[in-house]
Amino acid sequence: MDARRTSARRDAIADSIRGVYTHPSAAQVYDMVRSRFPSISLGTVYRNIAQLQEDGTIRCVGIVHGQERYDGNVSDHVHFVCEDCGAVIDLDFDPLGSDPEFDGAVIHRRELAYYGLCRECVESA
């Protein structure tokens, strides 16, 4: 595969996603990048997010409250998703241990998420 040309907008989008731990949606990334590139469109953000995912620079962590959320940490790790406020939080443990072996299959990626209420939502209830 040929290397993509560098793009200041794509770099800013990647930096915005990697620079926060909130697992932003495309709309949130758009809001972050728009201060630097006022003429950028939401469509440009979506196209660049797709390219960044294809390149393995970022990954989608799933749909939360109807919006895809993105993570700049592409290493295998576990997430907690608050079903009330929509927070997506990285968890620092590996509940699965080592990868199982599947009759010659090769595992490229694994995902696991826990769902419930975050501490703030529990305390405010």
Describe this structure in words.
- The structure is a single chain.
- This protein is of the alpha+beta class.
- It has two domains: 8-71, Winged helix-like DNA-binding domain superfamily/Winged helix DNA-binding domain (Arc Repressor Mutant, subunit A, Orthogonal Bundle), CATH 1.10.10; 78-124, Dna Ligase, domain 1.
- Helix content is 32%, strand content 20%.
- The protein has four helices and five strands.
- Strands 4-3-5 form a three-stranded mixed sheet, with no helix packed on it.
- A hairpin with a 5-residue loop joins strand 3 (78-82) and strand 4.
- Helix 1 crosses helix 2.
- The N and C termini lie far apart (51 Å).
Short description:
The protein has helices at 8-18, 26-34, 42-55, 119-124; strands spanning 59-64, 67-71, 78-82, 88-91, 112-116. With 125 residues, the chain is an alpha+beta fold. The protein is flat.
